[in-house]
User: Fold these one by one.
Assistant:
Number 1:
Amino acid sequence: MSYDLKRSHFSIILERKVATGSTITEEGTLLVATLDASTGEEVVDLCAASSGKVVAGWAIRDNADNSTTSVVEKATIPSTGTLEVQLSNNNLVTSSAGAASSMRVFRDVLETAITLVNDGVPSTGQVAVNSDTGLLTFHDDESGLAITITYRYNLTVAESRLLFFQRNINNEAGALFGQVGVGHGHGEVFTDQFDATVDWSAAGTAVHTAASGTVSSSGGTVIDARVISVPNVNNPLLGLAFNFGGAPIGG
């Protein structure tokens, strides 16, 4: 699942119609609400990196046609030879067209991040990312360092079916009726739909809507949520306590 069913909980779960022309395929994505101009009825859609939106809740589906997911890996940069680290996955999600991948590379001992650049020859303090192959190339100054890599990658259909559950009976009921489950009210969610470039461990990190139903730390609409669990090797999901439509949950 795109969110952890065992640890996530929502005080309210309701079905909502999906906005005309939109498709919601992944669970754990953040949804916003608008009123349909023709019917006057509330409909939902994936959030985006835009301000002034009304947050509806988290997507809950009958099945999961996941196209992306998040991973956290530990590695040690070689001390000699070509300073390369091969990630376990390829076809990485990019931040924007032609930009370096949606990734954060963190020096464990120095507790600082390494700057991402597109595939090529990195300069001091940089790592060159090949988004197609998942190969990272480091500058000589980084030799021998232990690092943590948080990143998102695009799933093949086979990988999606292998990693995420799809029930056999009525698994397209929501799509048939143009609806999606929405988890809202107050609760906690552990989701893989987050901006992997963000340092979510930083104190007081605000949570904002971002592109394609994800969350980030800036831009978009600020939501009433706080970080309660940072993605790591054993649990690559972002944990958030949230309150949508009720009293503030505090800091």
Number 2:
Amino acid sequence: MSIEIKRSIKPVDYNDAIDQLEKRLEKVINKKANELIWFLEHKTIFTAGTSFNENDIIDKSIKIIKTSRGGKITNHSPGQLICYFVIDLTKRKKDIRKFIISIENSIIDTLKEFKIKSISDRKNIGIWVNHNKENKKIAAIGIKVRKWIAYHGFSININNNLKNFDKIIPCGLKDRKVIKLEQILNVNYRSFLDVLEKKLIKNLSVSNYF
């Protein structure tokens, strides 16, 4: 089976998205559906992964949705590109580490196409760019694996409102700042998405794992 590519034009409700993701997960586990890469946006929302700490919430008035993904607390809002996936690792030697590297490289390679240098960080998962002599996070990654099927995904800040991150300690990192693509380079959102899609398809190709 091939990977289905899905793009949602309007923002998708977070709970609806996760419900759809988990239904696809069950179908992929039971070999009843294709793998999935889904590009979308959410309205403003704060989500917490399995390792989040209550102390990471600065503004106690915000509503937090707890999720099953890995990682800590983050914000989603319009202008931030979300990529969810359901990928079968049994086709990819059950290599979780290489899968994560494939995701990281897809984002790094996409940014490189727009002349932006970025790096991954083993200690602080995500993608970072050096801006004004300071490493800042441009992409967050949160993955869960069930029965060797990897799901959830990553987010990339394109032109979203970064003030929302002031209400939390993003990903539990106190002294690290976030950045959006718009602050570095004026890039068309659609063009960026087109390149990212191609990089993901290439890097997640089963042939890359053998």
Number 3:
Amino acid sequence: MKEFVESNRKFISGVIFTLVLAIVLSILLGITPSEVLSGTITVTDRNETEEIQEKPQDTEPEEGTSLKEFLAALPEYDGAHSYVVVNNNIPFFTEEEKENTEPFLVYSELDDMGRAGVAYANLCCDMFNEGTRKGDLSQIAPSGWHQVNTRERFGVSLKYEETTTDYLFARSHLIAWSLGGSELDPRGIITATTGCNLAMLEVESAVREFLSNTRTDHVLYRVTPVYRSSNDLLPYGVLMEGYAVENKGLFISYNIFVFNAQPELYGVAEIDYKTGEVIKP
């Protein structure tokens, strides 16, 4: 994940002049956003036929794997990699979507199990820090919410940026408040491990830095919680897609699946995605 972020940052810093020129020459089409997928995504109920493939860490991706097949055989978390690259890092936005320069942000409604679904936006720097932030985040309990003290339960502390924490789960925002998302809308919050939340934050930081540098560009940004079964309260991971609109994805274009897992607990404890409980194997 750090390599992903650093490569984007280096690329961005070296092309500011080119970006300015591209912005001047770009044609603003003003196409309205297409209808967003509603509801949650589970292995058993998604029927899209777009091409997608997992990129294993040490091998080339297999050709011709559909999204449905990918979801039916999600990669197993190996304890070492926080994410896998999907579809050769090419997001699934349509050509019409990739021409839209109108900002927007929408959430799917919670399903009948209270689970968050797709969060989708066309971000720009004017949206930064504009989301709703009144209230108490601690009063929101996303589906599968169970706080776990890993040091007390398993004798393990977790790495959190430059320090450590003993708490496994976070109320993770599908679209960060700093990017324009709501801080308190339950439709935009999932129960995620500290490791998953950190990986998502790194992607958010790269997108925010890009938009801060370009000032007038837009980034299509979609985060899809993926549930392995229709009965799971906890997402197995999130599919994160991004695409820089004005420069045709030259500087921001990614498609990754981030595991909702924790490396320090690999082989020590298991997450029950049906309930959100954590148990010893």
Number 4:
Amino acid sequence: MRLFLIDYENVNSAGLHGIGQATAEDRIILFYSHAANTLSFEIMDEMMDAEILPERVCLEQTGKNALDFQLVTFLGYLIAKEKADEYYIISRDSGYQSAITFCQQYFGVKVHLRPSMKAALGSKKQPAKKQPEQPVQLMQDVRKAAKKTAKLQPVAKKVKDVRVQDAKKGKRASVSLRKKATVIQVQPAQSAPAALPKEERIPVDLEMVLSLVHPTVNADVAAEILHCLQDSHSKTEFHNALQQHFDNDNAKLYYHSMKPCFVTFAE
């Protein structure tokens, strides 16, 4: 069972996107206040289609960070009473991180901070992506093509001689080898590698993110930053992705910390 505590004051309806991916074994508790008590029809339809109805806890006492304290207190209570495999706090407020670290160190439980249900429920699928390795693979393919070109040049000459002899004998010449030689010869042996001077030295992984970001972040936050980088095709997309997952100050900090990896982008 997974247990989700949603800071609805912080994420609103956007934080509930992906709630339809939850299972019947999951428990979802929504913390809200009278200042944030509306729900979009899109999210309502998603919950109805998946037959999911979150538990609701309304904040009656107002004040700075009142809902945050209430949510963290309830998290401690649930850790003591519930036997969940993982605990998730759905919020873009990085202030929860100290409480999460405390729970992990003293209670030995898995607690994660995610900006939305979609990010939480889809996070386990991310390791399958290996985009940073693609430039290296591309370089290897280009080099293989260059070697084949050098080998096929004398072969192409032999094929031409064979076709001439067959034509004298009245035989129909074969074109399959000629097509293969022609297609490969179109690609110069040295021009393609010259277009990729930097891409071969870019394996961006979780360890690199942890080394680049300062002040230091934990593995969950680093994984979220890496996910934003891998899903982006430009610096602009990367910046927008960070702003969707983190508050404005942290998004700027992570963006500037990851500048050494911008060579992966085409722009």
